[in-house]
Design goal:
This protein is of the alpha+beta class. Helices cover about 15% and strands about 30% of the residues.
Length: about 90
């Protein structure tokens, strides 16, 4: 893989399409992978535009429950809110 040219808006490189099982695969050069923040196992959306350009958009990773709970600190927790009793709820 060689660097083709640097454009004002981004980085352009050439690579080769290769057979991968019954599909075709493209290797993403490390410089581009770092720039778009993808690594092995990352999910991406592929979009083919009318001019046959291929656009690769990394999907944002949804945080796990453990990752979300790790962000809960004493200083960002709120007190319980008592809304009172409405209707015929069983307590």
């Amino acid at each position: 893989m060689r660097e083709k040219n640097r454009k004002k808006e981004g980085l352009s490189m050439s690579t080769t399409v290769q057979k991968w099982g019954n599909s075709l695969g493209i290797r993403i050069p490390s410089q581009i992978a770092e720039r778009i923040a993808v690594s092995q196992g990352s999910e991406v959306d592929l979009i083919v535009s009318d001019d046959h350009s291929l656009i690769v958009i990394p999907k944002k990773k949804k945080p796990t429950l453990e990752e979300l709970l790790a962000q809960c600190k004493v200083e960002n927790r709120h007190d319980e809110i008592d809304f009172g009793v409405e209707g015929k709820e069983l307590l």
